[in-house]
Design brief:
This protein is of the alpha/beta class. It has helices at 2-18, 71-87, 109-121, 136-143, and strands spanning 34-35, 47-53, 59-61, 97-103, 126-129, 132-133. Helix 2 (71-87) packs parallel to helix 3. The longest helix is centred in the N-terminal third of the chain and has 17 residues, at 2-18.
Length: 144
């Protein structure tokens, strides 16, 4: 019985190491569009800022945000974030920060573009767009 319990604990430890903690920064109010080209990043971003747009075009800044922002409020918040990063010193630069953009599949593309422009106005340079990975095999079977 002892070897079996030992093996169970090893499996638990193994799966804890493999858990994808990027799920934490996702908000359930955002349903990503399907894309066959969407792939998870090879490595986690060192200094991410997550922008999420819901279906009704409310914006969530970083994970855990309960308040929905408008584009104007987002511009102010991003400029404040940029000031904080600049004040942090030489350890972190704006070019080191990656802005992760997650938008609901039903959000208007023009609003997503405005969200990106707000980040560019705050002088952020690096962006990553998120989409839900579509099952390529399933789609080919459906076409037959």
């Amino acid at each position: 019985m002892t070897p079996m319990i030992d093996m169970v604990f090893q499996l638990i430890a193994f799966f804890m190491v493999l858990i994808n903690f990027s799920e934490v920064e996702q908000d359930q109010r955002v349903n990503l569009p399907l894309s066959e080209l969407a792939k998870p990043p090879e490595v986690a971003y060192e200094k991410p800022i997550t922008l999420q747009m819901t279906e009704d075009e409310g914006i969530i800044l970083n994970a855990g945000g309960t308040d929905l922002l408008t584009i104007d409020e987002l511009r102010i918040a991003l400029k404040r974030e940029a000031q904080i990063i600049r004040a942090a010193g030489k350890d972190v630069r704006l070019s080191d920060v990656t802005v992760i953009v997650r938008a609901d599949k039903n959000a208007r593309t023009g609003m997503v573009q405005e969200m990106i422009e707000a980040a560019q106005d705050a002088e952020f340079e690096t962006f990553a767009l998120r989409g839900q990975q579509a099952d390529v095999q399933l789609r080919t079977d459906e076409q037959r």
